[in-house]
């Protein structure tokens, strides 16, 4: 069936470097995409979202890129900090808000001092 | 602060008993809420969509008689795990879209269930 997947299950970066987390999705009808951060033992925390009519959106230290041609989504974190250590999930939805989210498998980001 | 609250944060129960988990939207109304289950080191799996005033919609493979969902008000959905067994031990998470926040979907802090 349709699914959202991630290329890398783990990612280790040096503190201060930029991090790029990738995600592939297979449902071309998806209209809405979200990145979540999940720390150990906690619920997912919203980071940034993007609609399918956009290809880039920037937040504070984070940027999400959407390439609909190859059905690829990425999250860029600038100047990675120790507090960024967590598991990051991408999720897709057919319609923003009212529809269910399908989650990818997650990428664990670890920061080296 | 949290916009979606879950209670309890963790619970331990004996096999065969039932456990209720509450999900509340704070400062906004939610006609729809979602319940997920997450096993250690795995992703979130949608269990069901909770609809205010009507029956929940369950995902394939999720037993509706075992995981009872009640969405009696616009700010509260409950998930009851009936006749719990050790394999039901998991992290249960709810979410709700906030119209005031442009339909951004917020998640609760999750509820750890351990069945012994």
Plain-language structure description:
The complex is a heterodimer of chains A (113) and B (116). Chain A is mainly beta. Helices cover 0% and strands 52% of the residues of chain A. Chain A is built from no helices and eleven strands. In chain A, a hairpin with a 6-residue loop joins strand 4 and strand 5. The mean pLDDT of chain B is 93. In chain B, a hairpin with a 6-residue loop joins strand 4 and strand 5. Chain B is mostly beta strands. Chain B is built from no helices and eleven strands. Chain A binds chain B through residues 34, 36, 41-46, 49, 89, 96-98, 100-106, and chain B through 4, 6, 32, 34, 42-46, 49, 91, 93, 95, 97, 99, 102-110, 112.
Please give the alpha-carbon distance between the first and last residues of chain B.
Answer: 33 Å
Can you tell me the overall shape of chain B?
Answer: globular
Please identify the structural class of chain B as seen in this structure: mainly beta
Provide the helix percentage of chain A: under 10%
Helical residue percent band of chain B: under 10%
The number of helical elements of chain A comes to 0
Average pLDDT level of chain A: 88
Q: What can be said about the biggest beta sheet of chain B?
A: 7 strands, mixed
Instruction: Say how many strands of chain A there are.
Output: 11
Q: How many helices of chain B does DSSP assign?
A: 0
How big is the Rg of chain B?
A: 13 Å
How far the N terminus sits from the C terminus of chain A, by CA atoms, comes to 40 Å
Cα-based radius of gyration of chain A, to the nearest Å: 13 Å
Order of helices and strands of chain B: EEEEEEEEEEE
Tell me which protein chains meet in the greatest interface and how many residues each side has: A-B, 20 and 25 residues
Strand content of chain A: over 45%
Order of helices and strands of chain A: EEEEEEEEEEE
Q: What are the segments of chain A in which pLDDT stays under 50 over at least 5 consecutive residues?
A: none
Structural class of chain A: mainly beta
Question: Main sheet of chain A?
Answer: 6 strands, mixed
Percentage of residues in DSSP E strands of chain B: over 45%
């Amino acid at each position: 069936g349709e699914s959202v997947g991630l290329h890398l299950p783990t990612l280790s970066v040096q503190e201060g470097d930029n991090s790029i987390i990738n995600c592939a999705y297979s449902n071309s009808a998806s209209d809405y995409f979200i990145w979540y951060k999940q720390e150990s033992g906690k619920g997912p925390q919203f980071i940034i979202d993007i609609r399918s009519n956009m290809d880039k959106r920037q937040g504070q230290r984070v940027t999400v890129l959407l390439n609909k041609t190859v059905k690829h989504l990425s999250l860029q974190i600038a100047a990675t900090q120790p507090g960024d250590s967590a598991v990051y999930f991408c999720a897709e939805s057919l319609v923003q808000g009212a529809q269910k989210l399908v989650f990818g498998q997650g990428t664990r980001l670890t920061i080296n001092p | 602060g949290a916009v979606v609250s879950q209670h309890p944060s963790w619970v331990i129960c004996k096999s065969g008993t039932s456990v209720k988990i509450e999900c509340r939207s704070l400062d906004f109304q939610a006609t729809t809420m979602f319940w997920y289950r997450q096993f250690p080191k795995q992703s979130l799996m949608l269990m069901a969509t909770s609809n205010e005033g009507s029956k929940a919609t369950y995902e394939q493979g999720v037993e509706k008689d075992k995981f009872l969902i009640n969405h009696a008000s616009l700010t509260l959905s409950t998930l009851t795990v009936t006749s719990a067994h050790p394999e039901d031990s998991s992290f249960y998470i709810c979410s709700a879209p906030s119209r005031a926040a442009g339909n951004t979907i917020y998640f609760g802090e999750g509820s750890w269930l351990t069945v012994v």
